[in-house]
Amino acid sequence: MGHSASADSAECAAPGATAPSPSSLLWVRILTGSKLQTPTSLNGDSILKVCRWLLGHPHTWRLYVTVSVGRGQGQTEIVHVPTHGDVNFNHAPIPFTLEDIVTYDPGLGPRASSLASMSLASTLLDRRIPEMTIKVYRVRRICQDALVSVARLPISTTELAGTSREHTISLANGCGMITVRCSFNCSVNDLPNLQSVLAYPRRHSLAKFAQALAQLLQGEDGLEILQRAVPKALHLPTEKVTSTMQSFLVSLCNQVSMLSDDESDREVMQRFAPLSRSIQDFIAECTHNSANVAALTEEWLCGTFSLCAQKAGGQKLASMNNYMIKEFLKQGERYPGMDHLVPIDSRGDTVADWLNSPPMVRRDFVPREAVLGKGMFGTVWRAMDLRSRQWYAVKRSNTSRQPTIAREREVTNHVLMNPHPCIVQIFGNHYIETGSCFSSLVMEFCAGGDLQDKVNEAHTDHGYRLPDQAVTWLGQIFLGLEHLHMVLGTLQRDLKPRNVVFSDDGRAKLTDFGMGRIGLVSTGAFTLQNCPPGSPAYVAPEVVLQKPYDFKADIYSFGVVCWNVLTGGVRDSGGDWSAPCYAFSSQNFANLANNHRLLEKHVKHPSRYNVQSAPSEAASDFVLLLTKLDPEQRPDHGKIRSVRFMSSLGLPAPDARRSQIDEWIRNRERAKDKT
């Protein structure tokens, strides 16, 4: 603990200190009247006491008490204790939040607060929270404070809910008794509300029902409920059922944690489409071909809901939620699964060579007529769902590059959980183990080409003609990047024109997360292919130099993309109109760290480098601001929104709903049509 360095300054807490915020779930006080005494065993402290007594100096201990519950910890003020007797504590109540208590799991880090709040109802129903640990420390001035006693107290939410309760417990080592007052600050209305939602789902929104269901299944018996509800006609393999249901439960809780109160039932159903598809695919794998997968899934879900309602104190609901279950199944049926995807050519016809191949060969075979593009990590091909006739793009990655593929799967699964209109929608991430192992990422098919194509096409014999929607595209790119950073806590790390694609209606969307990383801070070490993540002309200097970096590295890349789009760029060795870039080698990337200087020269002296100038002074200033060498001098998302160049766009708020973003895009299109 090492408290002694500041012991004197912390010795007295103000009596009558205010109680913790009502947001705390539990608070604890060590009360006046606790009886503490010196240890009964003869140890160094007792010998010191005798020596001081012989010298005529009365011996007193200076103690403080720590209280731990789950991951949370707090401590009292320091008090003087005679050889034995009552101790006068005046400390403020020690608060413990919901995350401290409910999400405690030894060896694991904290979960998101939304997941913690989901667990509250489960905690109430299970009647348990982690035990309280009380430790008494003696203050030492020279060395580390000494732990002299310990006590533990199991706590039940049943006895604490809405009340305060005092407990007197014995300390170890004969150090006396501690009196503890526990106050559990939880509204007991949560439980009746939960029962009401599960018993009468039609009276509540689908979001509230999903939240109630997740709250209950977060309890210790959540997996048991899912297993008990399995239809008798469904024989699930024991070795697979637990891990699969755990995966379903994690998916449910992840989706629920991202729900907002104002989402419509339709929007909520769309969120749960991947889970519906996964459940139906799992049941189909465990049954014979003639089985009615939809009926078995419906029976399982009805059984699960009924058991949850019973746990919450409600009735067994024989015909509950049929309307919701049927819609849930429909969403899953519309969702693309690998077994229903076939490669197609540019006209939408199934490729004959693939169609005539044996079933086991088809999984490993991507016909050239369906190929959309190839890169370092895989091949992207055009596919169609035979049921819906909807087109998709599928990225097939060979798992020989396992670390890279594993990271992309992790990032894309993160994106899948919380889609955004300005990010390519992810529909599934499948690991195929038959034949040669590979990963297949199913994505939205964007038929409008990519941003690099748009820039190239805007060059004519008369120079570069800025596309009418160019500034709107940059706004859309920013919104997608902001969502990645602020909502998903993810770095893109390879933002460039080729990784911005366009939907049929001309909307710009971020794609390709092969270089992505969950987490907004990196140590700077090259962990992928022993080279900096990103593309040479667009990568930030700090990334090249292997310095620690954060989301400002993506902001730099965004600034380079803005210059490329606004001016048309310079022609590179591959024929694309791109950003200026110094020469480099695979053994030495250092020159790339000077690209920001080269870009600055092109911005300030365009005629000297035979490039087109930015359309306005505000645009030039914006590019220079985003591409500063020092990341600390680059703006964050809020400041980018306020810069003159971007503020003119009237961007939707960072927490805007999808419908609001769609409306902003339509308004921009209408405004452009008028001009």
TrEMBL record:
<feature type="domain" description="Protein kinase">
    <location>
        <begin position="366"/>
        <end position="646"/>
    </location>
</feature>
<dbReference type="InterPro" id="IPR050660">
    <property type="entry name" value="NEK_Ser/Thr_kinase"/>
</dbReference>
<feature type="compositionally biased region" description="Basic and acidic residues">
    <location>
        <begin position="655"/>
        <end position="675"/>
    </location>
</feature>
<dbReference type="InterPro" id="IPR000719">
    <property type="entry name" value="Prot_kinase_dom"/>
</dbReference>
<keyword id="KW-0547">Nucleotide-binding</keyword>
<dbReference type="InterPro" id="IPR017441">
    <property type="entry name" value="Protein_kinase_ATP_BS"/>
</dbReference>
<protein>
    <recommendedName>
        <fullName>non-specific serine/threonine protein kinase</fullName>
        <ecNumber>2.7.11.1</ecNumber>
    </recommendedName>
</protein>
<comment type="similarity">
    <text>Belongs to the protein kinase superfamily. NEK Ser/Thr protein kinase family. NIMA subfamily.</text>
</comment>
<feature type="region of interest" description="Disordered">
    <location>
        <begin position="1"/>
        <end position="21"/>
    </location>
</feature>
<dbReference type="GO" id="GO:0005524">
    <property type="term" value="F:ATP binding"/>
</dbReference>
<dbReference type="Pfam" id="PF00069">
    <property type="entry name" value="Pkinase"/>
</dbReference>
<feature type="binding site">
    <location>
        <position position="395"/>
    </location>
    <ligand>
        <name>ATP</name>
    </ligand>
</feature>
<keyword id="KW-0808">Transferase</keyword>
<keyword id="KW-0723">Serine/threonine-protein kinase</keyword>
<keyword id="KW-0067">ATP-binding</keyword>
<keyword id="KW-0418">Kinase</keyword>
<feature type="region of interest" description="Disordered">
    <location>
        <begin position="653"/>
        <end position="675"/>
    </location>
</feature>
<dbReference type="InterPro" id="IPR011009">
    <property type="entry name" value="Kinase-like_dom_sf"/>
</dbReference>
<dbReference type="GO" id="GO:0004674">
    <property type="term" value="F:protein serine/threonine kinase activity"/>
</dbReference>
